[in-house]
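Table S2 (continued). Query chain:
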Amino acid sequence: MRPQRHVVVFLLALAGSLLWFGLTAEAKSDYDIINTGIKGGGCWYDDSHFVVIQGHQPAPGQGFVVEGLYYLDPNQPKDLRRIDLSPIEPTLQKQIRDVTCQEQTILFDIMAPDRKTSRLYRVKIGTQPKLVADMRWAKPAVISLKGQYVLGNKLTVDKGVWVEQADCDVKFLEPGLKALCWPRDTIPQWLTPQLVVNQYLWRETILVREQDGNVKRIPNPKPPLRLADGTELKQGYLLRDLENRIVHEISMKQDPYQVVDFHLDPRGIYLYGVCYKAGDHGDKHYTVGGRICRFRLDGQNQRWEEVVSVQQSPRDPFSLHALDVNAQGDVLMIERGHRSAIGLWMYDAQSKMVSKLLQVVSPEELQGFRISPNGRWISVTKESSQLILIKRKGVTP
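Corresponding output:
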């Protein structure tokens, strides 16, 4: 382990209304805010370890420069420890991006110097990193560790022209894993151990390359997808099995709910989404919601169910955005759009209660927020990449 690196920490108890680096807290005594002094964001490895891509911004307007991969114990945020990623070359470590955590494992992508390919690695704290997949293009690999597979792609794109290849974009795969090589021209995918949520989009026109090398736009010769019941689908979300067979459509509009956006829980059991009912906004025709719904991904369920309503009255409409959820069903959400203040709210799955944690001046102050597995800790990255931790008091570790 490399020498410990110290950071400046300011601990501010939320005993009243505070103005702190733009964050204004509600008058509460059950939350603490910790400014770690760290530049960078990351993910929760477990309840005692938060993984950070540490870096700096050389000058205003310039990009974020990665320094390395670190972790900290939120109870001792001064003790920032570097994760030894040798034998990966230090110059390549500066190309780390898209760090996520699954099954107490850190997953990170490294873009090749030519910026055309990428490699996916995994590492547990205290061990050496292992190469998981070498990808033919620079898009981050999509993996399910519990399902033991990587979702590959047979399509490549050159100046807007999609071409299906004979082989997969996964050039190397760690032994024991399998690659699902599907031709797919839409990137959003959400993986569960046995099923894949896929965003489907049919385009009216497509680009093709003619014999002279020029690119031409033509009407799409392939018709839109037809579901098993004969329904034509041009845009939507599909649940597929690992053989790429459609199980059913995940409808975003089911009476009485309209679902706006969703987030997959870490276990891959539910989708949690912002939703609303007709009349929630009174006579205002908003297309946003103040409720949280969830959809069980078991291959049988086809209905959304309501979890909680944050909105109390049609005269007090809510606009919820950008969810995060942990394995036990605690949900974080941002409220913005129809008020002068922007708030961070949390639903506690154990108590079935929803509460406002804090409010801020602008949405950029609540970027990249994550909740720890036991719901005791919340991480937030400000626009300046400053890492902030929020500790919920009274939560059993």
